[in-house]
Amino acid sequence: MAESVYKIIEVVGTSKASWEEAAKNAVNTAGKQLRDLRVAEIVKLDMVVENNKVVAYRARVTVSFKYDVKSR
What we know:
By secondary structure, the protein is of the alpha+beta class. The chain has one helix spanning 19-33, and strands spanning 6-15, 37-50, 53-66. A hairpin with a 2-residue loop joins β2 and β3 (53-66).
């Protein structure tokens, strides 16, 4: 088995509907820029409140992807 290296970044997704949708938005958007996504972990959930009403859900997600290490 070849050795691999993975990089982890943190992204925040938002949604007006739910935390689940916010997390999906974070991963889907990250996947447009990054290759070989491996694992996503929700690390924090919060909400945006305006006039005493929840107007948006936010999910902070760490995403790991295979780090492209070029052989020398």
